[in-house]
């Protein structure tokens, strides 16, 4: 009888431990952080295909995305897919592409901290060469870091604030490439 009681107590303790761990995981997953797999080369060389990033959901509850943030959002064309891109222009900003460079509010945008020298940004179906567009309220203009291989706001337009899932914080897989994702425009 003593053995059965010990087995019973062990099973109860194990189930309680599992349920507590599952509840903690669920709270973290639903309210704080979510993993995301980078698919494709649109953010190369800063992010590689098959890398995993931890995306902060809580950041969006505390503040809006900032210029330079790398965000995960629902694809405007295919809402069942998630994309990862860099926020380049915020609501109220004007953005244009001239001679391979991005201009923000009439000034050439300094992207040297995340783009290699010589990288050119060309027009798309939504944003044509020398055209200035103003980012509406609750919207963002996003670009992939690999400008020649990225489908982004130049092609399909603005990203709604309501479609942004979170701000990417850490690359955590593969383990030999773990690193924090820093906003190049933060002080």
Q: What is CATH's topology name?
A: Umud Fragment, subunit A
Q: What gross morphology would you assign?
A: elongated
Q: What value does the Rg take, in angstroms?
A: 21 Å
Strand content: 25-35%
Helix proportion: 10-25%
**Count of distinct structural domains:** 1
| Count of β-strands | 12
Q: Pairing-aware structural class of the strands and helices?
A: alpha+beta
- Mean pLDDT, all residues: 94
Looking at this structure, what is the CATH superfamily?
A: Umud Fragment, subunit A
CATH hierarchy: architecture: Ribbon
Notes on the protein architecture:
By secondary structure, the chain is an alpha+beta fold. It has a single domain (35-180), classed as Ribbon (Umud Fragment, subunit A). The protein is 21% helix and 29% strand. The protein has helices at 2-32, 58-62, 153-156, and strands at residues 33-37, 52-56, 70-74, 82-89, 94-98, 101-104, 107-108, 133-134, 139-143, 159-160, 164-173, 179-180. Strands 1, 2, 3, 4, 9, 10, 11 and 12 form an eight-stranded antiparallel sheet that branches. A four-stranded antiparallel sheet has the order 7-6-5-8, with no helix packed on it. Strand 6 and strand 7 (107-108) form a beta hairpin. It is elongated and about 85 Å long. The relative contact order is 0.20. The model has no long low-confidence stretch (mean pLDDT 94).
